[in-house]
Amino acid sequence: MDSKRQQKVASLLQQDLAAVFQRDLPHVFPGLPPGITLVRVSPDLGVARVYLSVLTVGNSGSDTQQLDLVLDNAKEIRQALAKRVRKQLRIVPELVFFLDDSASYAAHMDQVLGQLHIPPATSNEPAPDNPDAAPKRPKLFADEDE
């Protein structure tokens, strides 16, 4: 459970990192910059774990290339972030970047669930010709009489 201070700092870092990727360092990222899905900050506010989402889903090679590009430019990203948060934070946390694969996992689970064959449920409703009749009670045991 994160404290309120951790949550506020994480939210601030997420907004400012998105601005850094889009406005301050567009020359670093050809095409679309990675999206920031989540930022988690350590209790001492010294380390921020940044989860990145790459918008080209399905091509895992592109995902790792984008993460490598971010890791190669981590120092420049942290410096640009420091310029944005210098009035709000005393120390800019160390940034640790991770690839967020929740979108590809959700797509995989959707595909798996789409392949399931679920038979329709049997109805306990009365027959349409006699609506006053009581619904049939389901059989609980094989040797039970109706």
UniProtKB/TrEMBL annotation:
<protein>
    <recommendedName>
        <fullName>Ribosome-binding factor A</fullName>
    </recommendedName>
</protein>
<dbReference type="Pfam" id="PF02033">
    <property type="entry name" value="RBFA"/>
</dbReference>
<dbReference type="InterPro" id="IPR023799">
    <property type="entry name" value="RbfA_dom_sf"/>
</dbReference>
<comment type="similarity">
    <text>Belongs to the RbfA family.</text>
</comment>
<dbReference type="InterPro" id="IPR015946">
    <property type="entry name" value="KH_dom-like_a/b"/>
</dbReference>
<feature type="region of interest" description="Disordered">
    <location>
        <begin position="118"/>
        <end position="146"/>
    </location>
</feature>
<keyword id="KW-0690">Ribosome biogenesis</keyword>
<comment type="function">
    <text>One of several proteins that assist in the late maturation steps of the functional core of the 30S ribosomal subunit. Associates with free 30S ribosomal subunits (but not with 30S subunits that are part of 70S ribosomes or polysomes). Required for efficient processing of 16S rRNA. May interact with the 5'-terminal helix region of 16S rRNA.</text>
</comment>
<comment type="subunit">
    <text>Monomer. Binds 30S ribosomal subunits, but not 50S ribosomal subunits or 70S ribosomes.</text>
</comment>
<dbReference type="InterPro" id="IPR000238">
    <property type="entry name" value="RbfA"/>
</dbReference>
<keyword id="KW-0963">Cytoplasm</keyword>
